TrEMBL record:
This is Histidine triad nucleotide-binding protein. It comes from Paenibacillus zeirhizosphaerae. It holds the Pfam family HIT. A motif (Histidine triad motif) lies at residues 97-101. Residues 4-113 form the HIT domain. PANTHER family: HISTIDINE TRIAD HIT PROTEIN.
Amino acid sequence: MDCLFCKIAEGSIPSKKVLETEDMLVFHDIQPAAPVHVLIIPKKHIVSMNDVVEEDLALIAEIHRVAQKVAQQLGVSESGYRLINNCGPDSGQAVHHLHYHLLGGAKLGALTGISDSHAAG
């Protein structure tokens, strides 16, 4: 499989890890759009939110639990953060592996330009 995020999850492409569990990986975005900008990915390859099936719902819940933990770890849980999932080409999804952007550390305003061009690893 030629998936950038699968390669990052397996360790064949390096990343600046924030948190890793058996099922998830959180790492810093290489082109941050905010002072805090990390990506949360399941290690299981799922193309997009449209491809989530019943058996993946626990994994989606885990992504949200991990987001809470990471926001606290990175010091943005009290001031606020944004959790973004791009789904499909019109949203800006270019990396076809389910992932969430967690952004914070500043007043984010009407930030709408979070495409996967920021998510290269």
